[in-house]
Specification:
The complex is a heterotrimer of chains A (256), B (340) and C (284). With 256 residues, chain A is mostly helical. Chain A folds into 2 domains: 77 residues, no CATH class; 149 residues, MetI-like (MetI-like fold), CATH 1.10.3720.10. Chain A is 78% helix and 0% strand. Chain A contains 12 helices and no strands. The longest helix of chain A has 34 residues. With 340 residues, chain B is of the alpha+beta class. In chain B, the strands form 4 sheets. In chain B, strands 6-7-8-3-9-10 form a 6-stranded mixed sheet, with helices on both faces. Chain B is elongated and about 75 Å long. With 284 residues, chain C is an all-alpha fold. Chain C has a single domain, classed as MetI-like (MetI-like fold), CATH 1.10.3720.10. The longest helix of chain C has 35 residues. The chains are: A mainly alpha (256), B alpha+beta (340), C mainly alpha (284). At the A-C interface, helix 1, helix 3, helix 4, helix 5 and helix 6 of A face helix 1, helix 3, helix 4, helix 5 and helix 7 of C.
């Protein structure tokens, strides 16, 4: 049993880590193709990536869309969660269902619907449209996380704050937001990650100003290249750094 | 059906923390023993060692005369009733209770019949087809007991089984546990931090603290003649007076007292302080009184040491006016040294 | 005005922005899409419906109809395979790996999660290609005389998907396992169950609701994904999302893309109805 367990663990780790390992190793390939044999390390492709204007522009666009759409998602989700915690609305279950609904629909379908709406209104596909789409997919998530974090203790604290004379705005900003700050951070972080990595909505709703995944997609059209490996490795490295930092920060806090 | 348990010089360490320090304990076959102590005293560790969920760092555990130190829980003649009951939520009560016999390869008809018999014993035969989530806390507790007893263990280990129940139900379950233990005759080792529960059910109480056994004896012994200050205080409320020998008696903050000479802390239970008794505690003023049903709980300030408070439980009906001065008496004093 | 009404008014005010956003940018576009699916193409122009022409075409044109089954087959294979691979992995990490290494093991098991989704599929193209590491190793060791084509087949799609969903399911099943009281396993073992019986009779059934949720999530995400089949599966057989994108790209056939999307939605809804009923039945 013991040997079997370790063997299985090793096998699965190999399966899971193999593509990333290959990606990173061949990003240093001194040659035109990122396949064996490995011809020795070079940083050439990284230099090329960092000098690539389109890629850097796409990176900036992705950052912008991710930051803005996550901020809007968290804000709207926070207000809605506070609202549903405030009082029982008529048809409350239905309204909650409406906010959660986009979570159960494929991104492709959300993107397609938005594309048609954008076309009808006569707008051009743009980063703005992509951002709107990303709010649609992230709002349910933020709402779900934040609504779940407002429990009985938060509700009585809100009641106490109102009882002590706080206005609605003060109740939200001085009492509720600080109380559920970790959930707000988690919701923002998750939204950011999803928006950052989202492809299909961005692909359908952008034309000239594209986001990073769309730019990488267009790089794939020209076939395998160590340059694509280098981009992928960089994205991976940055994400892992962010995750490890967050893990350490949150872990230390939890340990206290 | 029943066996004795012998703990020989058992020590247990978790990394740098020593949970148990060289414990020796003998439990007779058919005895109902309660391991009593505050959280972190080592009582649950000791139970896990007997159940086979932990292996002691040193020492031996014998059950029915056989060395079980390195035998896993599956092969020990013990079963454990867990604090959270650990009833399998996806199985009916019948399947839960019959699980142990099913694992022993018995035919379904056999283990179903035994399960029904056990459920009948705990008064839940009519709910055999239900699942655990449909039950109340007390009912779950009964199912857990039935499941643990269905395999007819020699020793049943109970890890704070009544902790999750409210007070009234807890008192009722204590009586049931005791009755069932008498009926089946199995050795019960029961862990709790509730001294009233311990006194209600135990043949013998093992008071534990800091990984050691402080006192081991019948409820009367442990309550009335505690061996250490810790077990005296843990078993119930105490009035404490530092004393040292003086002539035929002792000297105390209240002045000389007529008790057998000794140095240390003079311990008096509140019910042993009153308006009459074996020896005088001198005059005192009543500062507060509250009615508790069975008695009045009164605070007295001794005139000789007005900053001290003595707590007395006075019988129903007659207690002095607040502010009145009376002479207090004590009974059954015990003098214990600080470090036993 | 009563206090309750004031409260309700305030609550509605707070929830309104999110509700309006969802209405404007999700529900209305979705309605527009359904409406579009009821129209059809004549030449290069959209003829608005409502009419069944586009749906009729899906069921009469084998190249479109086949897509439904391609998607269903791929998704079913991936879901079953991912659960079967992820459960033991999560169990080993949760119970066999020493506590101090557990977090690290879990982090490693989901590490590629943090690469971009597009790049992850691309990396499998590197690994599985004719000149990729696997074929290189197999032919180099003499196990294969000739490289076998995996890229641009369904196998490649399934491998790429399984890789992703094994990570996802390992996470969900792991969190499920560590939430179980360790006393379940202890109690079963104490009552005489062998280690295998503990897993089969107690732990596995206890994680079933979590596994079902994970499997449903896998189903939904897998059947709606365009990237993995497009990069790894190629164009030999097309899944529903690939067909949808094809309608948009080459022909600008919005009614057909919309109709196929509605079919996709319907499949997901059916899957939800099926698994929801199953979950409820388990609870009774």
């Amino acid at each position: 049993m013991r040997i079997l367990s370790w063997a299985y663990l090793a096998l699965m780790f190999a399966f899971i880590l193999l593509p990333v390992a290959v990606l990173v190793v061949f990003s240093f390939q001194d040659g035109r193709l990122p396949v064996p044999p490995f011809k020795g390390p070079t940083l050439e492709w990284y230099a090329k990536v960092l000098a690539d204007r389109d890629l850097m522009a796409a990176l900036g666009n992705s950052m912008l869309v991710a930051l803005a759409s996550s901020a809007v998602s968290v804000l709207l989700g926070f207000l809605a969660a506070a609202g549903f915690a405030r009082a029982r609305l008529p048809g409350s279950a239905l309204l909650r269902g409406l906010i959660i609904a986009p979570m159960t629909v494929s991104y492709l379908i959300i993107g397609l619907g938005l594309l048609q709406a954008v076309n009808w209104i006569g707008l051009r596909p743009s980063l703005m449209a992509t951002g709107i789409g990303h709010v649609v997919i992230n709002l349910p998530l933020c709402f779900a996380i934040l609504a779940a974090s407002i429990g009985a203790p938060q509700q009585s604290a809100l009641r106490a704050a109102r009882d002590l004379g706080a206005g609605e705005r003060q109740v939200l900003s001085l009492v509720l937001a600080p109380m559920i700050a970790p959930s707000l951070a988690a919701a923002f972080f998750l939204s950011f990650t999803f928006s950052w990595d989202e492809f299909i909505i961005a692909f359908l709703l952008t034309r000239f100003d594209v986001t990073l995944p769309v730019e990488i997609w267009s790089m794939l059209r020209s076939g395998l290249s160590p340059e694509t490996n280098a981009v992928g490795a960089l994205v991976f490295l940055v994400s892992v750094l962010v995750v490890v930092t967050l893990e350490l920060l949150l872990f230390r806090k939890a340990a206290k | 059906m029943t066996a004795d348990v012998e703990i020989r010089a058992v020590e247990h360490r978790f990394e740098s923390f020593t949970a148990l320090q060289r414990i020796d304990l003998q439990i007779a076959a058919g005895e109902f023993v309660v391991l009593l102590g505050p959280s972190g005293c080592g009582k649950t560790t000791l139970l896990s060692l007997i159940g086979g969920f932990l292996t002691p760092s040193e020492g031996q555990i014998l059950i029915g005369g056989r060395d079980m130190t390195h035998v896993g829980p599956k092969l020990r003649p013990t079963t454990t009733m867990f604090q959270d009951y650990a009833l399998f939520p996806h199985m009916t009560l019948r399947d839960n209770v019959g699980f142990g016999l099913r694992m022993r390869g018995r035919a379904r008809r056999d283990h179903d019949a035994k399960a029904m018999e056990m459920l009948d014993m705990v008064g839940l035969a009519d709910k055999a087809g239900r699942k655990p989530h449909a039950l109340s806390g007390g009912q779950r507790q009964r199912v857990a007991l039935a499941r643990a007893l269905a395999v007819e263990p020699d020793v049943l280990l109970l890890d704070e089984p009544l902790g999750a129940l409210d007070l009234k139900l807890r008192r009722q379950m204590q009586d049931e546990l005791k009755a069932i233990q008498r009926r089946v005759g199995t050795t019960f080792v029961h862990v709790t931090h509730d001294q009233e529960e311990a006194m209600a059910i135990a043949d013998r109480i093992v008071v534990m603290n800091g990984g050691r056994i402080e006192h081991c004896g019948t409820p009367e012994e442990v309550y009335l003649r505690p061996r250490t200050l810790f077990s005296a205080a843990f078993m119930g409320e105490l009035n404490r007076l530092p004393v040292r020998p003086a002539g035929d008696g002792v000297d105390s903050p209240l002045g000389p007292l007529a008790v057998a000479p000794g140095a240390g802390i003079l311990c008096l239970r509140p019910e042993n302080v009153g308006l009459q008794g074996g020896f005088s505690l001198g005059p005192a003023r009543l500062t507060e009184a509250a009615f508790f049903g069975a008695h009045h709980r009164c605070h007295f300030a001794p005139l000789a040491a007005p900053e001290l408070r003595l707590v007395a439980h006075l019988p129903q009906g007659a207690h002095p006016e607040i502010g009145a001065e009376v002479e207090l008496f004590g009974r059954d004093p015990v003098i214990l040294t600080e470090a036993a | 005005m009563s206090i309750e009404r004031t409260e309700r008014r305030q609550a509605a005010g707070l929830a309104a922005p999110a509700l309006l956003w969802t209405l404007a940018f999700f529900l209305l576009p979705f309605g527009a899409m359904v409406w579009m699916s009821l129209g059809h193409m004549e030449g290069r122009t959209v003829v608005p419906g409502p009419g069944p022409e586009t749906y009729a075409r899906i069921f009469s044109d084998p190249s479109l109809f086949r897509g439904i089954f391609v998607s269903l087959e791929i998704t079913a294979t991936v879901t079953v395979l991912s659960v079967a691979l992820a459960w033991p992995l999560a169990w080993i990490i949760a119970t066999r790996v020493p506590a101090r290494w557990r977090r690290l093991a879990l982090l490693l098991a989901v590490l590629p999660f943090w690469t971009s989704y597009v790049v992850r599929s691309y990396s499998w193209a590197l690994v599985l290609g004719e000149k990729g590491v696997i074929m290189n190793a197999l032919t180099g060791l003499g196990l294969l005389a000739e490289p076998v084509q995996i890229m641009a087949t369904r196998t490649a799609t399934v491998i790429g998907f399984t890789h992703f969903f094994v990570m996802l399911l390992t996470l969900t099943i792991y969190s499920n396992l560590v939430q179980l009281s360790p006393n379940y396993a202890r109690a079963a073992e104490d009552l005489g169950a062998s280690r295998w019986q503990v897993i089969r009779l107690v732990i596995l059934p206890l994680t079933l609701p979590g596994v079902m949720t994970g499997a449903f999530l896998t189903f939904v995400l897998c059947i709606g994904d365009y990237i993995t089949p497009q990069i790894l599966g190629g164009n030999n057989e097309l899944s529903l999302p690939q067909l949808i994108m094809l309608q948009l790209g080459r022909r600008g056939d919005f009614p057909m893309a919309s109709a196929l999307s509605v079919v996709l939605m319907a499949i997901v809804t059916l899957a939800y109805a099926a698994s929801a009923r199953w979950l409820k039945m388990d609870r009774v």
